[in-house]
Amino acid sequence: MPLDQRFKGVGAALITPFDQQNEIDYAGLKRLIDLVSEGGSDYLVVQGTTGESPTVSSEEKREILAFTIKNNYKSLPIVYGIGGNDTKSVLDCIRDTDLTGVDAILSVCPYYNKPTQDGIIAHFNAIADASPVPVLLYNVPGRTVINMKADTIVKLSAHPNIIGIKDAGGSIEQSMELASRVPDDFLLLSGDDNLVTTMISVGWHGVISVIANAFPKEFGELTWHALEGRFKEAARLQLAFLEFDTLLYIESNPVGIKKCLEIKGICSSDVRLPLLRASQELGEKLEKAMIREGFI
Predict the structure, then answer these.
(1) Per the residue annotation, which of 8, 166, 258, 259 is the catalytic one?
(2) Disulfide: which of 184, 230, 250, 260 matches 225 by Cβ 3.0-4.6 Å?
(3) Whether 249 is catalytic
(4) Annotated catalytic, 285?
């Protein structure tokens, strides 16, 4: 099979805007979809971790997905997050979700109960067997505690319905090993914005990005410079985002990127507990960085 080109480039991992009553701000979500679409994002990722999926109800998730599909005026491919650490619950969610208009699901490595690598393989094979759309794996050991090892990912890449992985493990060595071992049609997508240029240089295909929420044009240029071999131009933009990327995570994701969107007038920086809105200090640092780098 050829590489699925729909998911090459930049997928914007959409935040979920909230109003002051902590309800979904659909007007803000519409502005966000328009911003990332007009900015050149290649596809939309709905209800990943950046969308605060742990504190968004099942009903709200369905409503957000339906709203995004309805307001996807550029008809960009849509990836929808369905994952968890109870395999049966994930399978039930896949069965009960109308995936019309969804091009793939993104499913996180099971967290908290710390399965073995064989348990991870069994979990994802069951999901891939049940899903009516292709599956993207999501490795994020900083949140799940366990790392999906390269051997595990290579074994899962043999499943015909598992088409790629978003990896936020931060290991260049594992990234290089995967690039050398997975089939040519298996998508390798960075989950670390600050490693995009490096990972593409060893054969990766793009990124599912937090930064693309607020700066889709700049981050799209960075990614496609790298994909098209213009590494000097990509490196210049990558380094411009270096300090900025660090600031985004000081008070946890998506607190920082929501503050950037508030500064840009897209939506408020409200988050749901146990997260808190960005501190005044962080907000000032982000705004200074945005001005210094010419992002506003």
Answers:
(1) 166
(2) 230
(3) no
(4) no
